[in-house]
Amino acid sequence: MVNLILLVSILLVSFAVGYVLILRVPPLLHTPLMSMTNAVSGVTVLGALLLFVTRRTSFEMALGLAAVVCATFNVVGGFAITERMLKLFKRRERSP
């Protein structure tokens, strides 16, 4: 029970710190920030998948599944947004 309270408090503190840091990023830096959050989400996916290797309770497995789903959603969305941003900088071919 103490471990669960500790883990939830770490989650809440990291959420609050991350939220404050993201709010202070200038709009010009959002694309590099997106690539960095993709890397962090990739590490989250790997960590949550490693959770499934060990013997855990069903609650911990559900949390691991939620982490995999959320982080995967973040990675896929980040790549889609980055691709759209890069299309803005491609040169259009002129017709002769």
Shape: elongated
Report how far apart the termini are: 71 Å
**How many H/I helical runs?**
3
Beta strand %: under 5%
Give the helix level as a range of percent: over 70%
Structural class: mainly alpha
Secondary-structure element string = HHH
Count up the domains. Answer: 1
Q: Which structural traits does this protein have?
A:
mainly alpha; 96 residues
Q: Could you please describe the fold and organization of this structure?
A:
The model has no long low-confidence stretch (mean pLDDT 76). Helix 2 packs antiparallel against helix 3. The termini are far apart. The chain has 96 residues and is an all-alpha fold. The longest helix has 31 residues. The protein is built from three helices and no strands. 78% of the residues lie in helices and 0% in strands. It has one domain.
Question: What is the element layout, followed by pairings?
Answer:
Blueprint: H1 2-23, H2 30-51, H3 58-88
What is this structure, in a nutshell?
The chain has 96 residues and is mostly helical.
